[in-house]
Amino acid sequence: xxxxxxxxxxxxxxxxxxxxxxLPSMAHSLGESPLRMQSVVIAYSxxxxxxxxxxxxxxxxxxxxxIFQTAIGLFVLGSLLCAWAPTLPVLTAxxxxxxxxxxxxxxxGRLSVLRTFPREQYLQALSFVAIPGMIGPLIGPTLGGWxxxxxxxxxxxxINVPVGIIGALATIRYMPNSRLPGMGGFDVTGYLLLxxxxxxxxxxxxxxxxxxxxxATVLMLLIGSMAALTAYVLxxxxxxxxxxxxxxxxxxxxxxxLLGNLFxxxxxxxxxxxxxxxxxxxxxxxxxxxxxxxxxVTAAGMASKRxxxxxxxxxxxxxxxxxxxxxxxxxxxSFALISPTxxxxxxxxxxxxxxxxxxxxxxxMNTVTLKDLSGGSASSGNSMLSMVQMLSMSLAVTSAGAxxxxxxxxxxxxxxxxMEVLPAFHATFIxxxxxxxxxxxxxxxxxxxxxxxxxEEVKQAGEM
Length: 464
Hints:
Its main location: membrane. The protein has helices at 2-17, 23-30, 38-62, 64-84, 88-116, 119-150, 155-158, 160-174, 188-211, 215-238, 252-268, 271-281, 287-292, 295-303, 305-334, 344-370, 376-410, 422-438, 440-443, 454-462. By secondary structure, the protein is mostly helical.
């Protein structure tokens, strides 16, 4: 069963990164501008953010095996539709289907492990299934570039089909269909309010640049998003069992960590989209070479996991997060110095440094958000964190795409020559860096006391 869940983790995390290096080739094939392909990434991550809150209830109601099989089936169907898509709107819609499946793979897989293994074996079991999930982002950009360059971009989706079929067959045989008896009703009203808030916010950010909305439309979407979020707060305050209980926000570390995750990841999440795009569009890299350039980021990130634990043990969450968030923003802004004449070795070192500080950031943010949760609040808090992480990834690419389009128009770059759009990329890197550095203020609200039992906390949060 662990291998079945591991396959699901691998499929989901691989597809989160494999698309980035293929975007210019997709754009050329579909007759679109490479700088307007962000909807392919946004559709997937935003759909995951919307569906994740419902995945746990669905598994409890219909059984883990049933929902996990459904998730794999939707993921494979979405992959086939993506490979077939003749236009960008069709491809975006297919990514929505894929995102629905991907949203259920991770939480339902974790839930099945939790219900199958005794508590003393749970951490070891979850560590095992998390390894393929870490390999996916490591090989995703390079594999995506190689498939795109050697075959075509369609194969970055088609490779999911045989893996998914094997996973679905193994699920039937090895995964128990555990349910939770006496399930209460699902908070449909709260779910719809949160979904409307997330979708309206994402559309408003991408409205002017990506979708060509008028200013009034964008303003109405923003107002609608805030109204839906306010309505959810009022609804959750009255309902006995809301989707996410408001008492979670009485836990100080959780509140600060959740807000920090939301805003800090807007910068972090933009980089995997911006870097391969810049390398290909502005510097003439082939897809495979652009994918190889992302290896230092992921390799340094994996190598620095233990460093994050050591830093938090010595200096505490507050100091590490405040300093590291500011440093991450500076490193992001430093990518404005990249040019075709710059030595390759210097760029590789810069990418490795970004991977290191970014990994420390993710580890510390996840841990501080979840460390004070216990009992019934742990499940709701973890689901909310997963939702916020995927929402911030969507907002990150949305914001980066909007900034890129704005600066491209401001600098008068029409894309006729690849070097014309490089200043737009430089300005975008500076902006996302400033956004990230500014979010360090959020972590200043944490208690300055050193963390206790940090090693175990980091290990558990790192698997979530």
